[in-house]
Amino acid sequence: MPIFVAIRHLPGLSADALKGAGARIKSCAAGMQTEGTDVRWLRSFFLAESDQTHCYFEAPTREAVADLNERAGIPYQRLLEAAQMTPDTV
């Protein structure tokens, strides 16, 4: 299944706000899975020096990921398909 990354610019984001956003994404993803859309939040990375967050999702389409983020009320600047690479795959 394709992997997508939502790139966000969230200046001034507190640790509590970050945790709350994660809880909303997790809850909304579970709701969408119940509805039949197989979308999963995989992980997020917060880059404090640049106020950016990169959130990775597995989903059948980019639109499913966009819907998830809209439901969770979390803005993003870019939503891109990502190629996964690990030390084991090179």
Structure description:
Strand 2 (40-47) and strand 3 (52-58) form a beta hairpin. The chain is 34% helix and 30% strand. The chain is of the alpha+beta class and 90 residues long. The chain contains two helices and four strands; from the N terminus they run E-H-E-E-H-E. The chain has helices spanning 15-34, 62-72, and strands at 3-9, 40-47, 52-58, 78-82. It is globular. It has a four-stranded antiparallel beta sheet with strand order 2-3-1-4, with helices on one face. The longest helix is centred in the N-terminal third of the chain and has 20 residues, at 15-34. The protein has one domain (3-84): Alpha-Beta Plaits (2-Layer Sandwich), CATH 3.30.70. The mean pLDDT is 94. Helix 1 (15-34) packs across helix 2.
Structural key phrases:
2 helices; alpha+beta; Alpha-Beta Plaits
Give the distance, in angstroms, between the N- and C-terminal Cα atoms. 20 Å
In the CATH scheme, the class would be Alpha Beta
Which range does the strand content fall in?
A: 25-35%
Mind telling me the CATH superfamily name? Answer: ORF SCO4226, nickel-binding ferredoxin-like monomer
Q: Radius of gyration in whole Å, from Cα?
A: 13 Å
Unreliably modeled segments: none
Give me the side-by-side strand order of the main sheet. 2-3-1-4
Helix share bin? 25-40%
Number of strands: 4
- The total count of helices amounts to 2
Shape descriptor reads: globular
Mind telling me which CATH architecture this is? 2-Layer Sandwich
Largest sheet: 4 strands, antiparallel
Under CATH, the topology can be stated as Alpha-Beta Plaits
The tally of structural domains comes to 1
Order of helices and strands: EHEEHE
Derived from helix and strand composition plus strand pairing, the structural class reads alpha+beta
